[in-house]
Amino acid sequence: MGRRTPATPFEQFCARLSRTCLGSVRIEPSIARALGAPQAWLTPVRPEDVAHARALCQEYRVALMLDGGKHPAACTQATLWVSPQPAGATFSLVASQASVWRADAGCTVEQLKETGVFAGMSLAPELTLAQWFAWPETVRGAVSGERESRCPPGSSLPDAARLIEQAEVMLADGTVEVLGPFGATAQAPLRSLTVQRLVPKLFELASSDAAQCCAQLTAWPACYRLDALIATPTHEPNLAQLLFGHQGKLGWVQALWLKQPGAVFAPLGLAPDTERGRTRDSEQVRGYEAQQERASAHQFDTRTFAQTRVDPEIVSRLASHLDQELKHILDPAGVFGSNSLLKGLESVS
Question: How far apart are CA 103 and CA 185, in angstroms?
């Protein structure tokens, strides 16, 4: 009688995943052979399932990927595809005067129809909030004030992104934080040390020469929306909007706070500096303000960039650099997949 073949690391991973998660775990060997790397699928039934999956993915170096987008034709990394959690997903009105709704990321477009947040968009009723937020190219139709064409990655910060007020996100290290406005009108302090450490790095990248040059272009050329952190007369930085169109590569979104389209275009009222001081740790504020001052200086220095004929290859390299740097800041270990799988970066050296 022959000895039993030892389990592979991926089989060990799947066995532990099945033991710790209440949701179902599925393996498709034929798909794995076609893609060139082991693949598994998890349908969670509670937030803890995703938290357990993230920890195991980090331990076994398996990519945790949001299911629902276009799967790659080939894959070099073992991958766990996780579905948004539709079971038990709820939504509620949290600020009636501002028309702000909080919705779990597993809520579907059909569920959210009564909120009016997707008015004017033609979306599949079964599309989950997590999938819409990760792949904005699924948006068809216009939000009030937006051009009639669809809103692909690479446009200026689309009005669809401006519907996002806040996002509850699980980051690569397992930290769960609510991200949102980070300017004069911000009212909620950052709770986690992880995000307090990351924010200065994010604003430093947003104030870099590469980001400021890209910001002068009519269309934002990078995939990740770093432009959400660049202040303009009509837009204040928002950490949640930074993740709009992230393709599941920067974190796991658990819930979103959304504004109705009619509230998106209200004049931006900037609160006094004294109000900002009450809601932000003084060190965070000093670091943020320093980056904002630097960004303003860069905007002045790079105006001629947009006025000259720009080499597309240079723009592509700048955009690729920003995407790679942002991914490295938020997910240096590649828990949510490597940048080589990111749409738009395959051909960039």
Answer: 22
Give this prediction's pTM.
0.80
Yes or no: say if 76 and 66 are a contact pair by the CB < 8 Å rule: no
Q: Are 48 and 85 in contact (CB under 8 A)?
A: no
Mean pLDDT on 289-302 = 48
The DSSP-derived string for 312-346 is HHHHHHHHHHHHHHHHHHH-TT-TT--GGGSTT-T
Closest CA relative to residue 181, chosen from 96, 121, 271 = 271
| pLDDT bracket for residue 95 (50, 70, 90) | confident
**Which strands form 164-170's sheet, in the order they lie side by side?**
91-95, 100-104, 252-259, 164-170, 176-179
Q: Of 43, 7, 9, nearest to 26 (Cα)?
A: 43
d(CA 109, CA 129): 7
Return the biggest CA–CA distance within the chain. Answer: 79
Q: Dig out the tokens for 252 from the structure.
A: 């796991």
CB 241 within 8 A of CB 136: no
Please check whether the domain covering 9-82 is classified as CATH 1.10.443.10.
no
Give the model confidence (pLDDT) of 212-239 as tens digits.
999 999 888 999 999 999 998 888 899 9
11: enclosing H helix or E strand: helix 9-20
State the CATH architecture for 91-331: 2-Layer Sandwich (3.30)
DSSP for 220-267 reads: --SSS-GGGGS-BTTB--BTTGGGTT-TTSS-EEEEEEEE-HHHHTS-
The pLDDT assigned to 190 comes to 79
> Hey, where are the domains in the chain?
9-82, 91-331
C-alpha distances out from residue 83 to 137, 268, 274, 313, 320, Å? 19, 36, 43, 36, 28
- At 340, the pLDDT band (50, 70, 90 cuts) reads low
Q: No. of H helices and E strands in the chain?
A: 11, 9
What SS3 class is residue 142? coil
Give the span between the Cα atoms of 100 and 340, in whole angstroms. 36
From the CA atom positions of the chain, what is the Rg in Å? 21
